Amino acid sequence: MLEDIILWNKREHIVFRLWAKDPTIFGQQQPLMLDWLSEPREMLGMLDSMSEMATKVKEHNFRSIVLLGMGGSSLAVKVFQDILAPEHNFFVLDTIHPAAIKRLEHELDLSSTLFIVASKSGSTLEPNLLYRYFLKKLMEQNVAQPFNHFLAITDPGTSLADEAYKNGFLTGPKGNPLTFWALSRHAHGHRHAKTPRKCHSHDRRMWSHHFA
Fold first, then answer.
1. Is residue 24 domain-shared with residue 45, that is, in the same domain?
2. Is 61 exposed, middle or buried (0-12, 13-18, 19+ CB in 10 A)?
3. CA 115, CA 108: separation in Å to the nearest integer?
4. Which domain holds residue 2?
5. Is residue 32 a contact partner of residue 40, using CB atoms and an 8 Å limit?
6. Are 189 and 39 in contact (CB under 8 A)?
7. DSSP for residue 30
8. Using CB atoms within 10 A as the burial measure, which of 59, 81, 137, 140 is most buried?
9. First CA to last CA distance, the chain
10. How far apart are CA 48 and CA 126, in angstroms?
11. What Cα–Cα distance (Å) separates residue 105 from each residue in 54, 100, 112, 118?
C-alpha cells in the first residue's frame, strides 16, 4: 500500500502540485483553501504589525485576555497554550455551559479584560452568544467604551465583521477594526492562532522562521 502511494506521488508529481496549490489533485477545478501552505512565510512579513497590535492591547492596560471560539477557532490556541509556558491571565472559553461561563467570569475583572471573538463565518452561534453576554455585562458595569474590549477574528464581509466596523471594536494589525484571517481546520499554523498568542508574550518570529 505504501509503495503504491509513493509510486502514485512520483507519477502524478503530487508534492510539487500541492505546493503549487493545484486543486485538480483533489478532483476539483475551483481553488481550494490551500493558503495555509504559504502561511508561515507570509506571517514573517506581518509580525511587526502584529507587534504593534500587541502594544496597543498593552496600552489599554488589559490584565486578562479571553478567546471566545468553538472548534477550529479555538483548537489551535489551546494547542499552543499547552505547548508554551502557560499564562495565568489568558483563557479560552469554548463552551456556553452556564457553570463554565460563571466560573470564568468570577476569575475576571471585566473592566480590564479583552475578549477576542473568533469565527470564520462570523455567524458561529457560541462565540456570538458569548460576545453578547460579556458585552451586556460590561454595559451593566458602566464600563467606558465597552466595544473597545473586543477584537474580532473573522472573514471579510461577515456579520461579525459588520458588527466590529459598526461598533468600533479594538483595531487589529494595520488599523483595521478587526483581523481578517481566513480560518480553517488547518488553523494551527495560521494567523488566526497567532493573533491571541501575539496578544500575550511569546516570540512569534522564532516560530514563524521555524515553520517557514
1. no
2. exposed
3. 11
4. 1-32
5. no
6. yes
7. S
8. 81
9. 31
10. 31
11. 23, 9, 12, 19
Q: Which helix (H) or strand (E) holds 118?
A: strand 113-118
In this structure, what DSSP letter does residue 63 have? -
Whole-number pLDDT of residue 194: 47
The answer to whether 119 touches 158, Cβ cutoff 8 Å, is yes
Distance between CA atoms of residues 92 and 158, nearest Å: 22
Give the pLDDT score at 81.
Answer: 76
Residue 92's H or E segment, with its range, is strand 90-93
CA angle, 114 then 60 then 105, to 5°: 30
Pairing of strands 90-93, 113-118: unpaired
105 and 62, same structural domain?
yes
Q: Which residue in the block uniquely carries the three cell numbers 512569534?
A: 204
Q: How far is CA 120 from CA 82, 98, 104, 116, in A?
A: 23, 24, 24, 13
142 contacts: CB under 8 Å, gap ≥ 6: none
- What integer pLDDT is reported at residue 102 of this predicted model? 97
Looking at every residue in the chain, the average pLDDT score rounds to 80
Q: Which three cell numbers stand for residue 197?
A: 498568542
Task: Calculate the CA 11 to chain-centre distance.
Answer: 38
The stretches in the chain having pLDDT less than 70 are: 84-88, 172-212
Same structural domain, 8 and 58? no
Sheet containing 90-93: give its strands across. Answer: 90-93, 64-68, 113-118, 150-153
d(CA 134, CA 72): 22
